[in-house]
Fold each of these.
Amino acid sequence: AQTVTQSQPEMSVQEAETVTLSCTYDTSESDYYLFWYKQPPSRQMILVIRQEAYKQQNATENRFSVNFQKAAKSFSLKISDSQLGDAAMYFCAYRAIQGAQKLVFGQGTRLTINP
Amino acid sequence: DAGVTQSPTHLIKTRGQHVTLRCSPISGHKSVSWYQQVLGQGPQFIFQYYEKEERGRGNFPDRFSARQFPNYSSELNVNALLLGDSALYLCASSFTTGTPISGTEAFFGQGTRLTVV
């Protein structure tokens, strides 16, 4: 079974600085999808960024980028120019290509932005 | 455009009771998935329905059941509630399922907070 591990329960960063959230996963599949979701206090999970495993190029969405290391099964999220609105729980998630559209989530990292 | 809507937003039930949670997907989305998020943990997959058929089931007891209607809305039913069923229940919809990734990204609702006392 696939597993996702986020080893940082909490992180904090000064506003306008850069922070990196870590994620590792375990799978025997060669092709799959990886995601980062943000969950603010409103509870709604919001998709931040996605990565297809067959693509070597790291995904980027404005201030958000990933460092995808397939051999190491690592998928970290970098947030540049942190803003107060970035404060939330961040979840890393894995989805297999085949079978049910099932997201496997990590335990989450609580990100605090200090003004 | 309306996002994924879930009802009710909060619910308090007594042990042993039955509960029905409802989800309306984004217009045009045919896949609905349900997740349970216990406080302090990541969401756990319960079910996926696509075109009214069950496509996947997580490691949950038979007390959990779901269905999808012709308009693609969905219900999650939980029988014989236990204290451990207290959680945030999230519904996610997507346009289709499988591959490619475009069109299969999951969009989540705000969840139903279920408290069992």
Amino acid sequence: AQSVTQPDIHITVSEGASLELRCNYSYGATPYLFWYVQSPGQGLQLLLKYFSGDTLVQGIKGFEAEFKRSQSSFNLRKPSVHWSDAAEYFCAVYGSSNTGKLIFGQGTTLQVKP
Amino acid sequence: DAGITQSPRHKVTETGTPVTLRCHQTENHRYMYWYRQDPGHGLRLIHYSYGVKDTDKGEVSDGYSVSRSKTEDFLLTLESATSSQTSVYFCAMGQGNEQFFGPGTRLTVL
């Protein structure tokens, strides 16, 4: 069965430091992968997505993610974190070819220290 | 996303009462979804719809029903609310491989 694991429930980084959020997936075929961000009290916003092609994908707000098939990973990175990046981040995999259903990881909460 | 709204945004109800949450979209998307969000679980799919009157169950559908009589509206009903259904509910619309989420409804069942 398809699944997504985000090993880190909570991460704290200093403002200006680099960030990497981990995501591992289990999926039999070539996965479609997504990263969403949720600010407190808000809905989910799509940061970036990977469908095929270049394994390094660029997203909004300066985020990027790298798909590594050999490691079944799709880690999210940002070179310099801003205080406004404090939020919850969700990795997701497209779980079905016909229905568009997404399977989400448990989420990682990012805290940014001044 | 401005093209998808949910109502109400907050609701407090009592155990055993029926509750209906509404999702409304203006983008004419074929697919719509209902998720619930709980700490430590991320978002889990309750039900989804692939067209008017066409719906199917997700992974946590027990105790929930849905209806879609128009493309723009997708209703989620808790037939008899229980405390375990206290959660934040998100609706999403999708076309192809991308979903856009509503602002959420915070439901508390006392």
